[in-house]
């Protein structure tokens, strides 16, 4: 019996020593630099409190493979897959619950190509395109069912080109034009039944000329006249109760109200 106990204690001691040495050896291989001061192998960075910020791997000071970043609660915040000598990073960020928040690519630490953004339930919100961290090209907004809600076009970070909005059933809601980040030329707002709700023109973001408003049947309700965004007159064809009067304008979110 004593012999068995001694054998068991000896084995436990051996396992403990081996485990301690393994941990020490592993620790010795972290955060290493070579004779030229270049980072080599696995690196882990922690803050002053010991919280892990990221871990990844370097070869000759160049990040390679997967890097993982953590938030204050030790949850995975960002995953990056490095390539092209560390200049390109395929990136996925996560909501606190673990659902993907965004995915896209950085090139030299600048957003490039298509980026997708999701809500906390995993529903696609927008797809955007970038060149050197600046919006460039088509910009899509989606409803929760995945259908397109809005289409914009960007040029060097500014809205430029046709602007289209859709109702949830896919019918056209708004059609206009942006030039140099301001509304310009003809814009048309539609009713859910497909008939025009209002139509007019913008000149460098200001209402100009005659704006025509329609009732649900398609008949003209009134015509308003504008000069440099200032209303100068109005012609009423159909008198509506005040509670049915809904002025149409463009608010800060780009939506028609």
Summarize the structure in words.
With 257 residues, the protein is mainly beta. Among the domains are: 34-116, Histone H3 K4-specific methyltransferase SET7/9 N-terminal domain (Single Sheet); 169-251, Histone H3 K4-specific methyltransferase SET7/9 N-terminal domain, CATH 2.20.110. Helix content is 11%, strand content 54%. The chain contains one helix and 21 strands. It has one helix at 2-28; strands at 32-33, 39-46, 52-59, 62-70, 76-83, 88-94, 100-107, 110-118, 124-131, 134-135, 137-142, 148-155, 158-159, 161-166, 172-179, 182-183, 185-190, 196-203, 206-214, 220-227, 230-236. A hairpin with a 2-residue loop joins β15 (172-179) and β16 (182-183). The radius of gyration is 30 Å and the shape is elongated. The model is unreliable at 12-26 and 251-257 (pLDDT under 50).
């Amino acid at each position: 019996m004593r012999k068995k106990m001694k054998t068991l204690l000896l084995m436990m001691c051996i396992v403990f020593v081996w485990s301690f040495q393994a941990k020490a050896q592993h620790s010795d291989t972290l955060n290493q630099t070579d004779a030229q001061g270049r980072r080599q192998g696995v690196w882990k960075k922690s803050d002053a409190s010991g919280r892990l910020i990221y871990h990844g791997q370097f070869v000759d000071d160049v990040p390679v493979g997967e890097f993982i970043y953590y938030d204050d609660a030790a949850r995975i915040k960002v995953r990056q897959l490095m390539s092209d000598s560390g200049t390109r990073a395929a990136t996925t960020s996560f909501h606190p619950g673990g659902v993907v928040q965004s995915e896209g690519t950085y090139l030299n630490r600048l957003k490039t190509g298509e980026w997708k953004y999701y809500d906390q339930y995993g529903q696609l919100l927008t797809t955007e395109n970038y060149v050197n961290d600046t919006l460039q090209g088509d910009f899509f907004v989606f409803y929760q069912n995945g259908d397109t809600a809005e289409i914009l076009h960007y040029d060097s970070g500014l809205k430029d080109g046709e602007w289209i909005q859709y109702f949830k059933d896919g019918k056209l809601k708004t059609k206009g034009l942006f030039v140099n980040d301001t509304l310009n030329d003809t814009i048309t707002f539609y009713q859910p039944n497909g008939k025009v709700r209002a139509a007019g023109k913008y000149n460098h973001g200001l209402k100009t000329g005659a704006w025509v408003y329609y009732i649900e049947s398609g008949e003209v309700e009134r015509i308003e006249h504008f000069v440099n965004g200032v209303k100068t007159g109005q012609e009423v064809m159909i008198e509506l109760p005040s509670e049915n009067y809904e002025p149409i304008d463009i608010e800060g979110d780009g939506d028609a109200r």
